[in-house]
Amino acid sequence: MSAPADWIAVDWGTTRLRAWVMDGAGREIAHLASDRGMGGLAPDAFEPALLELVGPHLAEGRATPVIACGMVGARQGWIEAAYEAVPCAPPGLAHATRAPAADPRLDVMILPGLSQDRPADVMRGEETQIAGFLATVPDFDGTICLPGTHTKWVQVSAGEVVSFRTVMTGELFAAISGHTVLRHTVGHGSDEAAFIDGVADGMARPEALTARLFGLRAEALLHGLDADAAASRLSGLLIGLELAGARGYWLGTRLALVGAAGLIARYAAALRAQGALPEVADGDEMVLAGLKAASAGRN
Amino acid sequence: MSAPADWIAVDWGTTRLRAWVMDGAGREIAHLASDRGMGGLAPDAFEPALLELVGPHLAEGRATPVIACGMVGARQGWIEAAYEAVPCAPPGLAHATRAPAADPRLDVMILPGLSQDRPADVMRGEETQIAGFLATVPDFDGTICLPGTHTKWVQVSAGEVVSFRTVMTGELFAAISGHTVLRHTVGHGSDEAAFIDGVADGMARPEALTARLFGLRAEALLHGLDADAAASRLSGLLIGLELAGARGYWLGTRLALVGAAGLIARYAAALRAQGALPEVADGDEMVLAGLKAASAGRN
């Protein structure tokens, strides 16, 4: 029989559900994951999906606190955890929403995301990574960039999120490389020089983007452009466009990248080529640190 | 029994096959269409697809000339009709490639597309619309824009294509509205004011594109942005980005738009908002005019 949890940290996104089972001394007993993301679940399917994953770790006769963040709190999730409006500190348990659970062994609290009125913007999940980063680097003042499907650029000052901007770079890469004529041209490998060239070109001539895209196809047809170089150049063009638009977020300010190692390395290379020197932190570690910071608010 | 054809004009693209059956006096006997586009056909399936469509119009005992343009001449088509390199006039029959046909009633000639070495670019089919436009407006000197899935901006002088540029605006709109999170946000209707706003914004701040895209989602979530307005704004942003990049093609020059009426109207509105006054011509009429011009070269 597994050791019972003191509490459970949950990161529940669109495509994945992950849980860290914690003991009373703050140690990780187990790290669990499933593909039962919010995107595929009806509201009444969340509790069974969670029980399937963490059931063996629940003590009998008492409710185990579960602290969750991410799309589980969206309108289409388990229950809506209304956004907190910036400027504000990353929200803690005091702002969380209790999810309806039939099993008395569960006490599930969902942390809210953040919203910004003008320009309109929203995040769900990244605010908890930001909380984790600020718990780890408490004096941080500057910009946190969280690369991903929807990359977030977040201005942080005095422990608060001041403003943020979401760019769809990751999702655009997937849509262009998977659902346009470039699917015949773009491979899965990588070519560092082609990437850095693409970044420079995307930054210098953002208005040429849509012509550059077809140019990849034509370069492949006429001049044998390699599929890996095409993929890296496409990624570079899109990240270059993003960096041109987000210049106010990263130029001349303290900058941290939080996310998955591979993607972080790509953004770091692009930014270093522009003279920026980002700090880096692992996204999974930061989300767990953020959930731990929220859990500390239980007492 | 149908009247036999003198010759047959064929526009064979990726998704559609269209044929105009012509008599000896240059009149159209029939206009036929099928969905057997090049994209779904193996090389040996082209002849049956053509016979299925035009078979009843073929005379017995002699070969009927068929003049075709478009993706049918791509490497993955019936037979490759090698590109002609610009600068050059839109290619005529002298540069066409004979397709292998087993049926003695068919004599199929495929017109080549155009290629450009630097920056690398290609077209297949549009060159025939350009030929048709130049046959209709022989003194034209300036830029022809052919909006579509892959919009072409073509600089024409003294009857020759001097240079051109392909932008993937149409395909980007489809990929973004169909295969990203914006599929929940973008409708199918239209909103003229939102479109013109999007054009202005896309032109003024091309580097902000990827942030503006997620902004549509956030505007819908937070401020109830209408799905039709979102669709028009997305279209405007992408066309605005295109116009910013193609400025050298349309600013201060004679300009013609050739294509489908709905799309032409959209580009015309965007360009008029920038002070340009494009002439317009129907794309179907121009491709037929171009094939007729090629047919005149039979004699």
TrEMBL record, chains A, B:
It comes from the Bacteria. Gene3D superfamilies: 2-keto-3-deoxy-galactonokinase, C-terminal domain, 2-keto-3-deoxy-galactonokinase, substrate binding domain. Signal peptide: none annotated. It holds the Pfam family DGOK. This is 2-keto-3-deoxy-galactonokinase. It comes from Sinisalibacter lacisalsi.
